[in-house]
Fold this sequence. Notes:
Elements: E1 3-16, E2 19-32, E3 36-40, H1 47-54, E4 62-67, E5 70-71, H2 77-87, E6 88-91, H3 103-114, H4 122-132, H5 147-159, E7 165-169, H6 177-194, E8 197-202, H7 205-208, E9 213-218, E10 221-222
Parallel strand pairs: 3-8, 3-9, 6-7, 7-8
Antiparallel strand pairs: 1-2, 1-4, 4-5, 9-10
Helix pairs in contact: 3-5, 5-6
Amino acid sequence: MANIIQVEGLYKTYKTGRVEVEALRGVDFSANQGEFVAVMGPSGSGKSTLFHIIGGLTPPTKGRVVLDGVDLASLSDSGRTALRKNKVGFVFQKFNLLPSLTGQGNIDIARDISGAKNGYQPEQFKEIIRLLGIEDRLHHRPAEMSGGEQQRVAIARALANHPAVLLADEPTGNLDTVNSEAVLKLLEDLNKRLGQTIVMITHNPEAAQFAHRTVLMRDGKIHG
């Protein structure tokens, strides 16, 4: 299988006043198309920084990231925005749903922003909604949903543009044990049934067991 993500010699240094903090120190990483990879490590290991750079949310200090054949260094700010709209779906620990909109409204606004040029056909997306088990929650606002239901809607929103890569940053961090396992099984199903490439950031070894492969990070480097 071809690499859909290729990271080479990645460094990221943050400056706070006169203090420099090296968040990433020479990271090499790749993920194949259709793979489910967990990136695991303690707080401060650099895993969330890697997530943000792969997703085009922040540039590296040095190094190269190629996502679905596109070298991120070759893109302008507007180009990176377009890449995020068309090639990347994001799932975060905080569900980040708009409270004034229903579940369907939150999904629709993501489709409108992306333009959904390469999105799923309506029947395909209905099947995803069925797989996520949220058919009867789409007309409810976030305050009327459980945490697990909100995260399922957030996953549907992330898939609205048929992304090449789904990036999930601690997707079960705000959920109880039962809902955490349910969401992880859904991610596993999306990977198996749709061939969706998933990179999941986690500090939880139990969550990492749902992935095909686990990458361990510590002190800004990959250790296995």
